[in-house]
Write a structure and sequence with these properties.
five-stranded antiparallel sheet; Phosphorylase Kinase, domain 1; 2 domains; 10 strands; about 40% helix; three-stranded antiparallel sheet; about 15% strand; Aminoglycoside 3'-phosphotransferase, Chain: A, domain 2; 9 helices; alpha+beta; about 290 residues
Length: about 290
C-alpha cells in the first residue's frame, strides 16, 4: 500500500527537528512501505513502518559493521539513531553519488565481500524467509478467499519444510534480500543497500534471489546466471534444498504483490497472475512477472 506523502512529511519534519537537520526543500525519493526522503545537504532520511524499531536499529548497526570491514555499502550518518518520530523509527544516511540500479555481477561482487565475514556480536536474528508473509496474505483483499486459503496452506507447508531443510554451506551473515534492486552502481563501484532483513543463516538464501530470476521469472539469462555462479563459486540450483528456498522466494514475491494490489488496482492483474502461476494455472516456468512499486 502506497503511503501518502502528507503524513510522511510531518514525520520527516519532526525527525529532522529532533536530529538538528533542516527539512526545507526535502524531496520524496520513494513513498512506499518505507519512506525515503532526500535533504538538500546530501542526507537521505529513511522513515520505517511503525513497530519496526528493532529492524531500524539493526540496519544502522549492520551498516556501521560493514563500513568497519571495508564492505562497499551505504553509510549511516554518525548520529544517535534511530530517532522516534510520530511513533515511527527514522534513520539518516549519506546520499550516494549519481547511480543506477546494479547488475547481477554487482550482486555477486558484494556477496563475496559479505559472506566470508565472521558473524559479529550484534543483535542479529536467525534468518526467517517468511517474515510478514502471513500478514501479507491477510491483507491481499483483491484475491479470492480460495486463493488466500491456498496461500495460507502453502505458507504453512513451506514453514514446516524449512525447519527440516537440508544442510548446505556454512551459515554466515546474509543480506536477506540480495537482488539488483538493493544494489546501486556508482562510478566508484557497486554499493549494497537496505539491511532491514540482515540476519544469520544459510548463504544460499542470498544466492536464491538471483537464481529464481532465471528459473522462475526469466529476468536473468542463462549466460548471466552462469557468470554469477562462476564468480561466487557454486550454483545454488544444484543444491538439494533449492526447490524449498525458491518456493519460499516465489511466495514472498507473490504475497508482496498481492498485498499492494489491494490498494493499487493497476497491480491486481499482476498479483493474480503470480498466484495463478503458483497454483499451476499458467504456463510452465520461467514465467514473466512484471515488477511493481
Amino acid at each position: 500500500m502506497t503511503i501518502s506523502a502528507v503524513p510522511a512529511r510531518a514525520v520527516l519534519e519532526e525527525a529532522c527537528a529532533l536530529a538538528a537537520f533542516d527539512p526545507t526543500g526535502a524531496e520524496p525519493v520513494r513513498i512506499a512501505e518505507n519512506e525515503i526522503w532526500r535533504l538538500p545537504d546530501g542526507v537521505i532520511v529513511r522513515i520505517a513502518r511503525a513497530g519496526q524499531w528493532k529492524a531500524a536499529v539493526r540496519e544502522v548497526l549492520v551498516a556501521r559493521w560493514l563500513a568497519d570491514n571495508g564492505v562497499s555499502a551505504v553509510r549511516a550518518l554518525p548520529h544517535e539513531q534511530p530517532i522516534a518520530a510520530a511513533g515511527r523509527p527514522v534513520t539518516f544516511w549519506v546520499e550516494l553519488p549519481p547511480h543506477e540500479i546494479g547488475t547481477v555481477m554487482d550482486v555477486v561482487t558484494l556477496l563475496k565481500q559479505l559472506h566470508p565475514l565472521p558473524v559479529p556480536d550484534l543483535p542479529l536474528d536467525r534468518l526467517d524467509p517468511f517474515v510478514r508473509v502471513a500478514e501479507r496474505i491477510e491483507a491481499a483483499m483483491s484475491l479470492s478467499e480460495g486463493d488466500r486459503a491456498w496461500l495460507r496452506d502453502r505458507y504453512e507447508e513451506l514453514r514446516e519444510r524449512w525447519e527440516r531443510r537440508p544442510a548446505g554451506l556454512p551459515e554466515c551473515v546474509v543480506h536477506g534480500d540480495a537482488w539488483v534492486g538493493n544494489v546501486a552502481r556508482t562510478p566508484e563501484g557497486p554499493v549494497l543497500l537496505d539491511f532491514e532483513r540482515a540476519s544469520v543463516g544459510p548463504p544460499e538464501w542470498d544466492l536464491v534471489s538471483t537464481a529464481v530470476k532465471m528459473t522462475t521469472t526469466g529476468a536473468v539469462t542463462k549466460a548471466e546466471y552462469a557468470e554469477f555462479c562462476e564468480a561466487y563459486g557454486t550454483d545454488v540450483t544444484k543444491w538439494e534444498g533449492y526447490g524449498l528456498l525458491a518456493a519460499a522466494r516465489e511466495l514472498r514475491m507473490t504475497t508482496y504483490a498481492a498485498q499492494h494490489a489491494a490498494a493499487r488496482p493497476e497491480w491486481q492483474a499482476e498479483a493474480q497472475y503470480r498466484v495463478d502461476c503458483l497454483r499451476g494455472r499458467a504456463e510452465p516456468r520461467p514465467w514473466h512477472w512484471k515488477g511493481i512499486m
